[in-house]
Structures are given as structure tokens and as C-alpha cells.
Design brief:
alpha/beta, Rossmann fold, 12 strands, globular, membrane, ABC_transporter-like_CS
């Protein structure tokens, strides 16, 4: 049984003009200890998917249909009291900005002890010992001193390490990291991602890494999902997607990486912008920005189909595969 299984998930947001669909027909599986990347531009639905997994979608958002099975239990159907035994305990989430995660008026130690005692019946002293161990795991220097410091006294990289330590406090089976290195400089980003991979491998913890950076995904994850306008458009082993991207959108993301342009040359970019949820074009949502658009792209939403070692939702790829089969 997979650790996590998402089946036909659909998430909507209710507006005065009617509801809009933020996620459509999302399905994937995650094994224990596996590292999965979720990639796409802002507005693709990556963070909404992360929040949906732990049932943290707040009104006017709601899960309209589908399942989020964690060890066979449907999290989408659980009440808040039942979810508390899983959220933060079995599944931890690391957010983009550590200053928004950490309470500025409490010391690091107070916050870690409070988190532990909310889920376990242990003394403050025992909770402090566990907190100290977790700070050592994430290589915080002078961890006993850091426990008595406030978030503003620490650097950005140190705060993010502490957020990771808090995520590990209850020995979760799954960590969802939503753009965990966005506010950090490049060298600190590399250190944080290297640390997360090491911790996941050491503790056999599964990781869902939500990011817009395919460069980070290529270094950290084993499998990747590419999202566009609330749908999965390509999915497969990370190496195959990076080395042989098949969807025009994924190819555009890879070509937009800084290292793909020569020194002094303009950076490549995908023309246009992602459509709003209430203004999606008919057919393929990427068709207005695609250089390889076909008549079918304006008529029908492409289904995910097998292509090589990946699943791709693209009429062009399907047509090319059909032609190859005919020629064979």
C-alpha cells in the first residue's frame, strides 16, 4: 500500500459569481521514503494541492470531490479533531517564510516544547531534551543557546533550519515543503536542500517538494509532477523529465533556467501568462502560449497518456506517438 494516494482530487473556491475550480482531476501515489517534486509557475495550484493533502483548505475553498488516502485513510473525509492526530504528527508541513511560521514573541524552545506537548503526554523537561536533539540533527550551532533565543535573533538560514527541526519533532512519515528556500540566498538554499535530503534518507521520511525551480527538483527529487492551471500536465521520473521533457510547457520551464542561456544573452521565457481560474480557454489551458498548437488543442482537454517513461497531457505528443505506432 502506498503511503499517500491522491485520487481524482478536485478543489473549488466559492465566489459571488459562482465557484471556480483550482485543482482538477489530480491523481498520484507516494511511497514511503520517496521524494516527489511538484513544479509549476505561480497560480498553477501547487500550494493549494499541498494544503489539500493535509485538509487545510480554508473557506471559501473546499474539496469538491476525490480522495486523499494516507495509509488507506481518507483525510478529505476526516473531522478536524481526527485530523489533528495526523497533521503535524504524521504529516508535517514546512512553509515558505519561517518568520510567518515562528511566533516572534516566544523563544524557539517554548515553541518546540509547546508543539511536542500538544501531541504527546510528556513533561516540559523531556520535551526540551527532544527539542535539543532535533536542533542537533539539523546542525544548529550551540543548540542549547538557540532554544532560549527569539526568532528575530537568528539568521534566515538558521530560522529555516529551526522550522525543519520543528517539522521533525514528532517523527513524521511525510514532509510537505512549500517553497522552503524562497527567501534564502543561493548558498544557503543548497545547504537547506542537502539537509532535507539527508534527513529524509536517514529517517525514511517521504518528501513532497513544492517549487517553481526545476534546478532544485533535479537535485532533490526522484519523481516530478508538472502542473499548469490546476492540472497535472506531465508526470514521471525526475531524470527523464529533465533530460527529455515532452510537454511544451515543461520544455519552456527548462529552457527558462539561467544556465540554458549563453553569457550576455537574453534569458529564455515562455510568452504570455497563466490564465486566471475564471478565464480558462477551451481545450488545453496552455494553448494560447504554445508554439506547437494544433486545432485539437482548442477543442478538447488532453488526457494524461503514457509516453516513454512519463505520462503527458498533450495532443501533439499523443499524435506523434500514434504516428510512430502506425509507422512501426
Amino acid at each position: 500500500m502506498p503511503l499517500l494516494e491522491v485520487n481524482n482530487l478536485e478543489v473549488c473556491f466559492g465566489l459571488r459569481q459562482g465557484s471556480v475550480t483550482a485543482l482538477r482531476d489530480i491523481s498520484f501515489q507516494l511511497e514511503r521514503g520517496e521524494r516527489l517534486g511538484i513544479v509549476g509557475e505561480s497560480g498553477a495550484g501547487k500550494s493549494v494541492l499541498g494544503f489539500s493533502i493535509i485538509n487545510l483548505i480554508s473557506r471559501p475553498g473546499f474539496i469538491n470531490k476525490g480522495e486523499v488516502l494516507f495509509e488507506g485513510k481518507n483525510l478529505a473525509a476526516l473531522k478536524n479533531k481526527e485530523m489533528r492526530t495526523i497533521r503535524g504528527n504524521r504529516i508535517a508541513m514546512i512553509f515558505q517564510d519561517p518568520m510567518m511560521t515562528l511566533n516572534p514573541v516566544l523563544t524557539i524552545g517554548d515553541q518546540m516544547v509547546e508543539c511536542l506537548r500538544a501531541h504527546r503526554k510528556i513533561s516540559k523537561q523531556d520535551a526540551r531534551v527532544i527539542s535539543l536533539q532535533k536542533l542537533k540533527q539539523v546542525y544548529i550551532p550551540s543548540p542549547d543557546t538557540r532554544l532560549d533565543q527569539y526568532p528575530h535573533e537568528l539568521s534566515g538560514g538558521m530560522r529555516q533550519r529551526i522550522v525543519i527541526a520543528i517539522g521533525l519533532l514528532l517523527d513524521p512519515d511525510l514532509i510537505i515543503a512549500d517553497e522552503p528556500t524562497t527567501a534564502l540566498d543561493v548558498t544557503i538554499q543548497a545547504e537547506i536542500m542537502e539537509l532535507m535530503v539527508e534527513l529524509c534518507e536517514r529517517n525514511n521520511v517521504a518528501l513532497i517538494l513544492i517549487t517553481h525551480d526545476l534546478g532544485v527538483v533535479s537535485e532533490v527529487t526522484q519523481r516530478t509532477i508538472v502542473m499548469y492551471a490546476g492540472r497535472v500536465i506531465e508526470e514521471g521520473p525526475t531524470k527523464e523529465i529533465i533530460n527529455d521533457a515532452q510537454h511544451p510547457y515543461t520544455q519552456g520551464l527548462i529552457n527558462a533556467l539561467p544556465q540554458m542561456a549563453l553569457p550576455g544573452q537574453r534569458l529564455n521565457q515562455i510568452r504570455g501568462t497563466m490564465p486566471g481560474l475564471n478565464d480558462l480557454p477551451s481545450g488545453c489551458a496552455f494553448s494560447p502560449r504554445c508554439d506547437y498548437v494544433l486545432p485539437a488543442c482548442h477543442e478538447a482537454i488532453p488526457a494524461l497518456t503514457k509516453s516513454g517513461g512519463c505520462n503527458v497531457a498533450c495532443h501533439l505528443v499523443t499524435e506523434q506517438n500514434n504516428l510512430s505506432e502506425v509507422n512501426e
